[in-house]
Amino acid sequence: MRCFLLLLVICGCQVQANTIYDELPSSFNSNEHYVFYSHGYIVEGEHIRPRHPKYGTYDFPAIKKALADPAYNLIAYHRKKGTAPFLFAKKLAADVDILLKAGVPESHISLVGFSRGGALSILAANELKRTNINLIILAGCASLIKKHPSVRAYGKVYSIFERSDQVGSCQFLIDRSEATKFKEISINTGLSHGAFYKPKDEWVLPVKKWLKD
Q1: pTM, to two decimals
Q2: Which of 69, 75, 121, 149 has the highest Cβ tally under 10 A?
Q3: DSSP single-letter state for residue 32
């Protein structure tokens, strides 16, 4: 019985060590992995489940729950309304730098973002200029990135876009960048930009596979 209880305690600690944070945790384990997920523009503000007239409800809590995994710690900030992209990207990069200075290897850190969040992840990677950080862009190579040709992608880059969405490939970004690895796939849900508003298997499963590989 004692052995069972000890095992239960150990397992419980392991599960708690890989959790969802809405702010940067106060302590880190250099052996663990950390994933920053940045939501789309529509979630900026008070509501965590805002509704778009065309794309429907953006279910931020459900997306966080779906992305969470015992293989890593998920950090997902809820940004304020009117967040300045370049300033937030500097904050995101600074938080990553805190992890690096705490001994977390570059390869244990991933920046994941959808739409505006994808652009923020790109901007943060551009600030950091690290070659082994993982950068996952979900329909994030839109006007904000196109209008700033000096912005480049760094690290190991994985891009996913929806075929029915006007926000398409990130190849133009890679062509001007110094990424150490690049892979891109498209999904075909017919939901345009709304394909990423909910945790659909079409994009969640490949994202989690990339993160764990």
Answers
A1: 0.91
A2: 121
A3: S
